[in-house]
Amino acid sequence: KLKDCAPNDRSTPASPRYSAPHSRFPVSRVQDGHLSSQKAYIAHSAVVKSLAWSPSGTHIASGSRDGKLRIIAASAAEIQREIVVVPESLEHPWIQSVAWSPDGLNVAVGAVNGLTIVHAETGHISRGGAHGGHLESISWSKGGRQVATASLSGEVRVVDVTKYGKESGAVTNRIEMNHNVHSLEWNNTEDRLAVAAGHGGLHVLNIPSASLAFKWSDGQIQHVAWHPSYKYLAACSSNLLLIDALSGLLLKQFTLPGCHLSLTGLAWNGAGGRLAVAAYGGALFIVHAESGTVEYKDHKVAQQDGTLYTVGWNPVEDEVAIGGRNNAVIILDLTGAEQEERRTPTSNMRWNSTGLPLEKPRQQVPGCMRMIAKL
Fold first, then answer.
1. H-assigned helices in the chain
2. Cβ atoms within 10 Å of 262's Cβ, excluding its own
3. Which of 3, 158, 328, 350 has its CA 20 to 30 A from that of 300?
4. Is the separation of the CB atoms in 255 and 239 below 8 Å?
5. How confident is the model at residue 310, as a pLDDT?
6. Cβ-count burial of 12 within 10 angstroms (0-12 exposed, 13-18 middle, 19+ buried)?
């Protein structure tokens, strides 16, 4: 079943060779008996609104409301490069979304000053007029040629990045959503975009025809993510939803235990059997997608003011990264624990007769946490 649900080609792009940073950021390590034996503290000076793992799983790009993009070597918890994308002179120098190119060489940044393409190794910046307003979300297509952007006003644009910043005609499509767009993501064939449009629900768009494939509405849809097989979609509002990506049929709906606030982010693991789900209250859940079992939950993982805005699952390793209002990127290693099983069935779980061909529930829980946080 796992072979059927996983992508046909699981080859991993080679990791780009990053040059040594022009300056090193201090790293302090402390002991923590709750989740891990080690934490590493580095710095964003404001809310971390978005993060993304590189295709090779070796680096994290994080964007903050301090206007800075950071390229982090995950294993060493070191910042390899820091790029100022939004000038501090703006009243709100916010970065809202980041996305890696499929070859791992560039990072697309969506911010209050529009779309920026940053070379991850050199820090070289390309700007253009393809989408110059306040961007809420961006997604880089799997073929590498297109970036989809969504503005605060609800306009979705498709940008040809080979022309971006060089010539006219970079924008190849425009779609008005009539709702604020919180997140969007390409499918593998680059002909459909899944769009989380808040109170407007979940939309799946046919990009070549600029038409609606289907729409699903249940509450305020905050985030959407394609399953690695691209047969299913996960979406979150106050509940976690699993939807058939072809028909739009709701397959399952989970209410996560002890979570009374909106869910803000989600990410599939590489095999497509588990979901990492973040919530406004600072809670993190690891959910088995077929059974609805909560394999791990922590309502204090972000500590202090723990609102979480973003979560990403390493495409190669069993690691989850989260970011939020505590000005931190936190990396959880899910492979190192041999602890007592802590699994809780979700409440109000509903599903139809179509089952997801997903991996079996795991009995291990996170055993190591590295925290990339404020100086």
1. 2-5
2. 16
3. 350
4. yes
5. 93
6. middle
User: Given phi > 0 = left and psi -120 to 50 = alpha, else beta, which region is 77?
Assistant: left
**DSSP per-residue string spanning 269-293:** -TTSSEEEEEETTS-EEEEETTT-E
The model's pLDDT over 130-185, given as tens digits with 9 standing for 90+, comes to 555 689 999 999 999 999 999 878 899 999 988 876 656 688 899 998 888 899 99
The answer to whether 297 and 284 are in contact (CB under 8 A) is yes
The radius of gyration of the chain's CA atoms, rounded to the nearest angstrom, is 19
Is 0.70 topped by the overall pTM?
yes
The token pair that represents 302 in the structure block = 């972000």
- Residue 113's φ and ψ, nearest 5 degrees, are -105, 20
Question: What's the whole-number mean pLDDT along residues 227-245?
Answer: 93
Contacts of 8 (CB under 8 A, 6+ apart): none
Parallel, antiparallel, or unpaired for β 155-160 and 146-151? antiparallel
Q: Is residue 316 within 8 Å of 12, Cβ to Cβ?
A: yes
Q: For residues 231 and 251, what is the distance between their CA atoms, to the nearest angstrom?
A: 12
**Calpha distance 246→22 (Å, rounded):** 48
